[in-house]
Amino acid sequence: MRVVFRCDPALRDTLPAPVPAREALPGWLRDMAPRATSELHGGEAVRTVKQCPPFIDAMSHGFIIPLPCDVRIEAGRLSWDWDIPLLAAALHPRSPISFHTPAQLEGTPLHRPGQVAVKFNSFWTIEVEPGWSLLATHPVNRDDLPFRLLTGMVDCDRYHDVGILFPAVWTDPGFDGVLPRGTPVAQCIPVRRESLTLQVETLGDGEAARYDAAARALLEAPGHYRRAYRAARSGAAEALAQPGGIEPQRADPA
């Protein structure tokens, strides 16, 4: 589907653009082995998640919003040196990060007394096709990042005159270092806005037989899901899902 991103004209040549999630797979996924020794299986080599298509496909779906500049974290203080020009929109944010007061999360498991929630400011507006919303969530399977994005749903077919703000809680209080420009801030997935009809049934004789046949094939033939069920992909996601896996097209710097 078509997704339109717009930014201030003064930032067009310097602001990192959103990228397909399949082009921002992390370096650790490239570097990990396709098989590992399992003591639970008597030292047998077992396939790692690098050979799990659902794991890879989830990380590769939608697009990534990147951090617009380096952000340094020292002793819990966040700072940046970003020489941003004069912008056309007077109310446009100028800093990459702002903050939520702790009281706004009070009553949720995300609340940390005395700890503010960071808010990644967006420098892109996002427009999707009519009838679609945008699910914005933490980059999938990225527990290596020192923050955890709060998940939200935005009706970007209507809300596209300003950018989305991405709130997050800081999960690694001991982190000191730099979040580089381009670090994945949010993974966004377009979803159709429609009601669900849930139909609950029991397995009939035919379904039970197909269940056993599918389960047997999955147990006896590694890679059966990929060969028999998985829809074709392109790029890094497709390559990583093959036995052995290969390097992604692009790895983010985080």
Characterize this entry briefly.
The chain is of the alpha+beta class and 254 residues long. It has helices at residues 27-31, 53-60, 205-220, 224-228, 236-240, and strands spanning 4-6, 19-20, 35-38, 44-47, 63-66, 71-74, 77-79, 97-100, 117-120, 125-127, 132-137, 147-149, 152-154, 166-170, 177-179, 184-192.
Compile the SSE list and pairings.
Blueprint: E1 4-6, E2 19-20, H1 27-31, E3 35-38, E4 44-47, H2 53-60, E5 63-66, E6 71-74, E7 77-79, E8 97-100, E9 117-120, E10 125-127, E11 132-137, E12 147-149, E13 152-154, E14 166-170, E15 177-179, E16 184-192, H3 205-220, H4 224-228, H5 236-240
Antiparallel strand pairs: 1-10, 2-5, 3-4, 5-16, 6-7, 6-15, 8-9, 9-14, 11-13, 11-16, 12-14
Describe this entry's structure for a reader.
- 15% of the residues lie in helices and 25% in strands.
- A hairpin with a 2-residue loop joins strand 6 and strand 7.
- The chain is globular.
- The longest helix has 16 residues.
- The chain has one domain: Distorted Sandwich (Deoxyuridine 5'-Triphosphate Nucleotidohydrolase, Chain A), CATH 2.70.40.10.
- The two termini are 28 Å apart.
Which band does the percent of strand residues land in?
25-35%
Largest sheet: 5 strands, antiparallel
Top-tier CATH class:
Mainly Beta
Low-confidence stretches: 243-254
The amount of helix comes to: 10-25%
Question: Main traits of this protein?
Answer:
single chain; 254 residues; alpha+beta; Deoxyuridine 5'-Triphosphate Nucleotidohydrolase, Chain A; four-stranded antiparallel sheet; 5 helices; 15% helix; 25% strand; globular; disordered C terminus
